[in-house]
């Protein structure tokens, strides 16, 4: 597996070059170097899509993007996203017969392993030393039923080759990767059966490569002032140029309920994609709204469902799939 944390000192700031203006959409990929792993990334993706034949595909993006402040990165700007929605949704897409390209922040939550890596228990709490076979380890009996169910689903996805894990770390890596996925799907003519489920928390600002210092910023310099450029809004480019035949679902997170629906509709009008799933930070694990230009629908868990451990993604994903079926019929006819 390629690494997303490789450092290339030759690509640090060159003081002899004048500062570049803020990157517009067309210039962003010229002014910022492509990840060195991109050819391997594209090879793995092409292989995966080819092997999955006519199966429908969900591209699920997940986790937060970092904004490095140095080329040899010690300091960076991050957000709180652990990738819960993306990892959980990926499982439900797989259960509904989709192949899943899981574009995720490295070391964020992954489908299936998420049940144990970010629980309130340490992973070792699920294990006990066998009393009948000294020196061996087994799963504690009280966790065996649940863990066996998760294990079987994970092994089935492996056997069927329906889950491709592709990591990123920085916002630039994410954007290059997303563009690569979209263009590769178009090239292989599989775009009409794909849905982009953009659950990643993408940084709004970044530090252009032309301004990155090579080494760690020294604290002895006193006050640190950082000037960041806005990340160009790529959703319109994704919809109109990179993946015009793909159904695209974006997410809108707000803390103020009074503006959530209007912000979602503004995004639809601006980028012309198919669906915005809106949620409030305070209630994001219990309820969401589906917003199109024609209507807004609310989906939520009952108190009883929440107590039983049902996940809101178990409702979200089948509803997205219904809409994807309609979309696929539309673009294929």
Automatic annotation (TrEMBL):
<protein>
    <submittedName>
        <fullName>YALI0C06996p</fullName>
    </submittedName>
</protein>
<dbReference type="InterPro" id="IPR007085">
    <property type="entry name" value="DNA/pantothenate-metab_flavo_C"/>
</dbReference>
<dbReference type="InterPro" id="IPR035929">
    <property type="entry name" value="CoaB-like_sf"/>
</dbReference>
<dbReference type="GO" id="GO:0005634">
    <property type="term" value="C:nucleus"/>
</dbReference>
<feature type="region of interest" description="Disordered">
    <location>
        <begin position="1"/>
        <end position="20"/>
    </location>
</feature>
<dbReference type="GO" id="GO:0005737">
    <property type="term" value="C:cytoplasm"/>
</dbReference>
<dbReference type="Pfam" id="PF04127">
    <property type="entry name" value="DFP"/>
</dbReference>
<dbReference type="GO" id="GO:0004632">
    <property type="term" value="F:phosphopantothenate--cysteine ligase activity"/>
</dbReference>
<dbReference type="GO" id="GO:1990181">
    <property type="term" value="P:acetyl-CoA biosynthetic process from pantothenate"/>
</dbReference>
<comment type="similarity">
    <text>Belongs to the PPC synthetase family.</text>
</comment>
<feature type="domain" description="DNA/pantothenate metabolism flavoprotein C-terminal">
    <location>
        <begin position="190"/>
        <end position="286"/>
    </location>
</feature>
<dbReference type="GO" id="GO:0015937">
    <property type="term" value="P:coenzyme A biosynthetic process"/>
</dbReference>
């Amino acid at each position: 597996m390629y690494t997303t944390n490789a450092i290339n000192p030759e690509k640090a700031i060159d003081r002899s070059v004048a500062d570049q203006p803020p990157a517009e959409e067309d210039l962003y990929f010229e002014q910022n170097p492509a990840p060195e792993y991109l050819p391997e990334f594209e090879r793995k993706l092409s292989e995966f899509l080819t092997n999955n034949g006519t199966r429908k595909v969900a591209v699920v993006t997940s986790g937060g993007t970092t904004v490095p402040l140095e080329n040899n990165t010690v300091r960076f700007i991050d957000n709180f996203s652990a990738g819960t929605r993306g990892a959980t949704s990926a499982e439900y897409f797989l259960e509904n017969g989709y192949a899943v390209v899981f574009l995720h922040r490295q070391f964020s939550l992954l489908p299936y392993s998420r049940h144990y890596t970010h629980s309130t228990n340490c992973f070792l709490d699920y294990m006990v030393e066998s009393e009948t076979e000294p020196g061996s380890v087994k799963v504690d009996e009280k966790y065996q039923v649940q863990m066996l169910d998760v294990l079987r689903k994970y092994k089935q996805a492996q056997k069927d080759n329906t889950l491709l894990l592709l990591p990123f770390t920085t916002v630039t890596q994410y954007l290059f990767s997303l563009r690569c996925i979209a263009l590769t799907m178009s090239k292989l003519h599989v775009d009409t059966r794909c849905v982009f489920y953009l659950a990643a928390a993408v940084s709004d600002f970044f530090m252009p490569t032309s301004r990155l210092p090579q080494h760690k910023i020294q604290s002895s310099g006193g006050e640190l002032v950082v000037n960041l450029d806005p990340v160009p809004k790529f959703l319109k480019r994704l919809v109109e140029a990179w993946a015009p035949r793909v159904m695209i679902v974006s997410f809108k997170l707000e803390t103020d309920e009074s503006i959530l629906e209007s912000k979602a509709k503004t995004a639809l009008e601006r980028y012309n994609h198919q669906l915005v799933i809106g949620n409030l930070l305070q209630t994001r694990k219990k309820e969401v709204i589906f917003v199109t230009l024609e209507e807004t629908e609310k989906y939520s868990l009952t108190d009883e469902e929440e107590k039983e451990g049902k996940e809101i993604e178990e409702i979200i994903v089948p509803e997205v799939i219904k809409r994807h079926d309609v979309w696929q019929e539309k673009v294929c006819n």
